[in-house]
Write a structure and sequence with these properties.
binds zinc ion; globular; 5 helices; 8-stranded mixed beta sheet; alpha+beta
């Protein structure tokens, strides 16, 4: 009886560990190349069950408003969305960044230039990013992003990027 119970406990422990490993990767990493500044960044922004503040700060800096230099916090949920999307695309390539945070002044200037920029853009709240992924077509990227239902997905084929945000799920 004692032996049998011990064996059961061991099996249960192994099974529990296997399930935990599948459900919760120990780390979440992302890499970026910013197309306007040429800056590259590899970060492990989540580890041991928590966001890593120093790594998030590196992301905030990379995704700053490149016109004004303003740095604002990027919503970590946006990083999780990017992380999920890269896994769905089975890619380890860096995201090519067109735009991250935008100050209200920059957003207004882009609107005056006639760019397709929303007046209350989630870019101004650190909740949006415009990206492409090398080696993956825009249509595939859009399809995968829509499947994640993690927020807004906009497609800009003429400029070859998709917009992602962690606002309400919607698409255009
Ligand atoms: Zn955008």
């Amino acid at each position: 009886m004692v032996k049998s119970a011990a064996a059961t406990v061991v099996v249960a422990a192994f099974a529990g560990r296997a399930i935990a490993t599948l459900a919760l990767p120990a780390e979440r990493a992302l890499s970026f190349v910013h197309l306007h500044t040429g800056e590259r960044l590899d970060v492990t922004y989540w580890a041991d069950g928590a966001y890593v503040a120093d790594e998030l700060a590196l992301v905030d800096h990379l995704l700053r408003d490149v016109r004004s230099g303003d740095v604002r916090p990027i919503d970590p949920r946006l990083l999780d969305l990017l992380h999920r999307l890269r896994r769905a695309m089975r890619s380890n390539r860096p995201y090519q960044v067109i735009s991250g945070y935008r100050s209200p002044a920059t957003n207004a200037a882009l609107r005056r230039d006639g760019r397709a920029v929303a007046e209350n853009s989630y870019h101004m709240r650190g909740m949006a990013i415009d990206v492409r992924l090398a080696g993956r077509g825009l249509a595939n990227l859009r399809h995968a992003a829509l499947g994640l239902r993690g927020g807004g997905v906009g497609t800009y084929p003429n400029s070859d990027f998709i917009h992602l945000d962690v606002g309400p799920p919607r698409s255009w």
